[in-house]
Each structure stands twice: as C-alpha cells, then as structure tokens.
Amino acid sequence: MSENRISFSKLFWPSFLAVFVAGLVGMVFFFLILGGIIGSFGDFDPEPVALQDKTVLHVRLEGVIADKSSQSIDAAALKVSRSSGIPELLIGLEQAANDRKIRGVFLEMKSPEMGMASAKELRDALVRFKRNGKFVVAYLSGEQISYTDYYVSSVADHLLGMGGSTFLWTGLHSESLFLKNLLDELEIGVMVVRGKENDFKSAVEPFYRSEMSDSSSVQMSALLQDIWKSTRNDIAESRKVDTLLLDSLANALAVRKLQHAFDNKLIDKVFYRHEVLAFLKKKVGLEQSAALRLQAFGKYMRETYYKEQLLAKQKKHVAVILAEGDVVSEGEGLSAAELGKMLRAVRTDNDVKAVVLRINSPGGSALASEEIWKEVSLTAQKKPLYVSMGDYAASGGYYIATPAKKIFAQAATITGSIGVFGIIPNTGTFLKNKVGITTDEVRTHRHGGLSLLRPLSAEEYGFMQAEIDEVYELFLNRVAKGRKLSKSQVHKVARGRVWTGASAKGVGLVDEIGGLFAAIQVAKNDVGLSSVVFYPKKDKTTIDNLIEILDEELENESTKTKNQLPPELILYYQKYNQIKKMSGLQMRLPFTSLSFY
C-alpha cells in the first residue's frame, strides 16, 4: 500500500508551479489590457457634469475624510479606493451654493472616519450653502448612527431618519489601553523620560501605568467636556432645543434608536427611503411621476476642484499647504523633506502672496519638528503666513505652527501638548527567561555598550533626562517667541497638557476660532486676492480618468474606501507601524483621533 502513496513534494511542487505560472500569466495579461486601455484614452477625459434645472446634489459621506484626498486601484480585486479631502469638500459645496441649477443638498452620513473639527468644518460649509437660499435634507439610516453623523446632519432644514436604526444618545467617552501588566508578565522593562514637570505628557503612561494618572484624567475629562459643550450647543441651536434637554436625555439613555430621537424632537420625520425621495421631488417642485435629478457630489466636487485649481495656478494667489500625519524626517506622513520643499517653493514664487499652513498632526520626531519650524519661520519672514489647525495640531504639530502671524483652530481642535518624551525599552530579561536567549558583551569605553538589552545606568539616565530637558526648553522658547509670551507663561500651560481649540484660545495658544475657510478668507483679504492654490498640487492624469471610469458605479458616493480587513486590525497595524517608525526624542500626542459613536 505504501508503494501507491504520492509523496508531498510530488504533489506540492507541480501544483505550486502551476498556480504560480497561471498567476504570473494573469498579471501580465491584466497589465497588458490595462496598458492598452490607458493608451487608448490619449487625451480622453470623462464626460463632464451636465446639470439640469432643479437638480439635488447627493452628498453621501463614508470612509476616511482627511485633509489630503487619495485614490488608488487594487489591481488584484479590481476595486477603487478613494477618500476625499476637506479642501475638495469645501470648494465643491461653495461652488454648488452659487450654481443656479442646484436647488439643494441631499445629505447621507454613513459614519465617515473624521474628527470633530473636520465635522465642524463640513457643518459650517453646509450653513454657508443654506445662506444662498438653498435647502439641506439629511437622511439617517443604517444599522448604527454615530454621534458625528448626527452632529453634521443636525444642521439640515429637514432631518429625516429610518426609525429602527440604532442611535445611542449617551454623551462622549474615551478609553485608553495600558500595557504595563503585559510588559511585566513578559519581563520587558521600559524606562520613560519626560521633560521637566511634563506630568500631563500622558503618551508614555501605557508603558508604566495600569490606569490613568490624575493629570491625564483631568485633561481628558476637560477635553471631552469642551467638545461635548461646543457640539451640543451647535445641535441645540440648529434643532431649536434646550441644552438641558440634551443633557437629560443622555443621562437617562432615553434615546436608543431614531424612533426615540423623533419622539424627543431630535429629528423631524421617520421615513422609509422611498418617502425621502418623494419628499425631495416635492421640495424641488417635480411631479411624483418625474425622475428625481440627483447629482453625485463626488464627481461634481472633483471636477469643480480641478477646474478651480487650473485657473488659480495662472494668477497671483494664496498658497494653502496641507501638512498632515505624523511628523517624520522623510517618508510617509508630515515629512520634513517634503514639507520643506513645498515651503521653499512658495516663498520663492513671486505669484504666491500669502501662505496658509494647514496642520493636521499629533506630532512626532522632535528633530524633524525643529527642521520644519525653521522652514516655516523663513517663509513667515517673506510672506504673510497663517496656520489653520485641523482635527489636531499637537506637540510637534503645534511646534511648527508657532512662527505664524495668526493661528486658527476649531473649538474641538486638539492642540497644545507642549512637551517632550523618550522611551527606552530593555528586553534582556525577557530574552533570557521567556525565550532562553542570553547575551554577553565587550566594550572599549565605559558607555560603549548602550543597548536595548539592559536598563540604563543612573548616570546614563541622567544624560537622557538632561537632553530631553534641553529640547523642552527649546520648545518653550519657540512658543514664547511665536506667541509673544514669557517662557514662564508658556510653561504654565505647557507641561505636555492637551487643550481643545476653545480652551487654547483662552490661554493664548490660539488666536481665532475658525476653520480652514476662515483662515483662507483672512489671508485673501490681507493681500487682496481671490485665487487659492493647494499644495501639494494635483493635476488630473490619465490614471485619474481611469479611476473615474472604473469607479462609475460608485458615483453616488462622495468618498469611498474599501478595506478587506476589519477596521480594528487595521488600527492596530497602523499603531504598530507608528511605533516602529519612532526614533529619537518625540513630541507626540497620546492619541491620534477621537471618534464618537
């Protein structure tokens, strides 16, 4: 019987080679077709948007909404991943407000990933849209409605919802994960060094504590209270309800689905989708038998953005530089190399008369922050330079904002966190006791063996503390000079503490409460110009046209991001990559976003 067995190698290798060759041929075939398609386009552009009278703009928001837009093709899955940027959204809504063929907006929020400052930016754009005599109808539906969904939608003239959808009106909360017990179990040591009196710099607490410190608890509680009050007050004003009612409903957990929201006047009507479409027809004066003229906001927005940028580049203009992500020397994120190049370009360009630096960053490398600060400072000496803060501009993100003529932030912007820290792990005990690996060493000099396999000596720790204190002192000096405060005044509001934009204005770290639109308006008025160019510049390419065509069936959606992994796994993977890229001293926020559900 054994003679009839087929060996594993005889079975595996032919199968493997067959699959490999087939896959290779398939990929070659795909790219040959793709190349042929692209080549056949030539100067082809997708058909432009052609609007009819009584058109309703369909704004459907889901996926990631950041400052920078992105798009890509997943060749293996033949899927398009696309996320829209705040500038595109604002320009699209501004253009629509002046478009006589567009009568109103049909807004559908599908729990997009965005911070509360971005949500406020979008909400304000819808307010400006309504001022031109146009309507906004919002429809909430789906399995679960997030707080952000409701916050943005509450600005609508008519707020409709699917009665059975889950909507928990509970207030806001934040949770933190602590790794100390795990590290103790693994016998991995972590030495934490913070700047002088940086007791609020809580980004390091998960490594040596099992719960929040009093300082961290105080600042997080104040942060959530500020965000709750500002967003709750906006909702109360739009919905014409008392803030006390909103608080009491949250405390009683009286609203658990949209039917309860209707019962408590948080929405106007409970409708099925076909009833919403009939309502929209009535709003624009169409017969019920006629087809509703819905225009997908995504295509309209992108076309508007490209056209406006094409015209603006040919004139004297205000340059808006988008600086987003972790502060790093080079690579992905808010890169000193890339941002420095853009800053040098705009300050030597005679057509650029003013600069708005849009910062959306939790911080990162202290060295890269100093490098960017220098480029921002040199630019501010040649051109009027304003800073607009997005969802967060904290730690290193705040550091680079300090040379600005004026700093703008939304009430819910997370900023401050003026402080420095370093983390030095040691894994020698872990390797010996848990894995069975031992180490030995030789050295030529006393400190020649600085290693992650052993704890620092008291003397070495002292050297690290002195270096971090020196960087913190430099941080205080940068802020003091930029904000025209004394160093002692800055230290009182620094110590690593995180503030909302509203509170930061009260302590002198921010000048004005307002979004990107407000900062741009001030810059345009300053130099008497109306044209704005966004950096990095985006030119529409053949690949963009290809994505537009492949994405045609998704054109009713203004943002599209498809992930094949669960979002929780993606979050942990991103966190792992963030930690892996850390080197040197850090000016970093203890968290990168606050999402409210």
Short description:
With 597 residues, this protein is α/β, with parallel strands linked by helices. The protein is built from 21 helices and 22 strands. Helix 2 packs parallel to helix 3 (116-130), helix 2 packs across helix 11 and helix 12 (336-347) runs parallel beside helix 13.
Task: Name the descriptors.
single chain; 21 helices; alpha/beta; 597 residues
Polypeptide structure, described:
Helix 2 crosses helix 11 (297-312) and helix 12 (336-347) runs parallel beside helix 13 (366-382). This protein is of the alpha/beta class. The protein is built from 21 helices and 22 strands. The strands form 6 sheets. Strands 10, 13, 15, 16, 17, 19, 20 and 21 form an 8-stranded mixed sheet that branches. Strand 4 (102-109), helix 3 and strand 5 (135-140) form a beta-alpha-beta unit.
What is the fold's blueprint, element by element?
Blueprint: H1 8-41, E1 55-61, E2 70-74, E3 79-83, H2 86-97, E4 102-109, H3 116-130, E5 135-140, H4 147-153, E6 158-161, H5 180-186, E7 189-194, H6 205-208, H7 214-239, H8 243-252, H9 258-263, E8 269-270, H10 273-284, E9 294-296, H11 297-312, E10 317-324, E11 327-328, E12 334-335, H12 336-347, E13 352-361, E14 363-365, H13 366-382, E15 385-394, H14 396-399, E16 406-409, E17 414-416, E18 421-426, H15 428-435, H16 458-483, H17 487-493, E19 498-500, H18 501-506, E20 512-513, H19 516-527, E21 532-535, H20 542-550, H21 567-581, E22 586-588
Helix pairs in contact: 2-3, 2-11, 3-4, 12-13, 16-17
